[in-house]
Design goal:
Hypothetical Protein Ta1238, Chain: A; 5% strand; mainly alpha; 58% helix
Length: 182
């Protein structure tokens, strides 16, 4: 099978189910940003990570493929084999947030992205995650979208924030506290 199909040469792509849409459509922008997020996680996972974080990030990468497929599958495609984000995916994120957050001191200030390089990457990935979330919010205003996608993205960004704080804690870096008096 060839990598290039030439079907997108005029600026269109196919959604699951066969519908052709502009590559500039909001739906494509959403799953493209999810792909960008997944690639950022891949860069991060190429570094030497604590095993527990690497495992969580590996699971998230697989779930982001499900999210991308969900976003690329219009809701009128009711195939039983359509990949969809479910409440179970959201619950897994919440459990991970609670697990890592329980090991940290309660947050008392705004945190500036930074600290250990891995934590800084997690903050950057969190920002990409929030961008994807904002795009999905826009998409929900225009088209029908699985509502679990938005909840998932909201929790995912929260998890990246907690993981960044956890990495700083593990590597004995202080969180960078925002100085509002500058």
């Amino acid at each position: 099978m060839k990598i290039y199909t030439k079907t997108g040469d005029k600026g269109e792509t196919g959604l699951f189910g066969g519908q052709r849409v502009s590559k500039a459509s909001l739906r494509v922008e959403c799953y493209g940003t999810v792909d960008e997020l997944n690639s950022g996680i891949g860069v991060l996972r190429s570094m030497s990570l604590p095993a527990d974080i690497n495992e969580v990030l590996g699971n998230i990468q697989n779930q982001l493929f499900i999210l991308g497929a969900d976003l690329a599958t219009p809701p009128e495609i009711n195939k039983s084999n359509a990949l969809r984000i479910t409440p179970d995916h959201i619950k897994a994120l919440e459990e991970a947030i609670d697990c890592f957050d329980a090991r940290l001191e309660p947050i008392k200030n705004f945190i500036v992205p930074g600290g250990h390089p891995i934590a800084a990457w997690l903050h950057l990935i969190r920002c990409v995650s929030r961008r994807a979330e904002r795009l999905i919010v826009r998409l929900t205003r225009e088209e029908t979208v699985n509502p679990d996608n938005l909840v998932y993205m909201n929790r995912l960004a929260d998890l990246f924030f907690v993981l960044a704080r956890y990495v700083n804690h593990q590597y004995h870096f202080n969180d960078v506290i925002w100085n509002g008096n500058v």
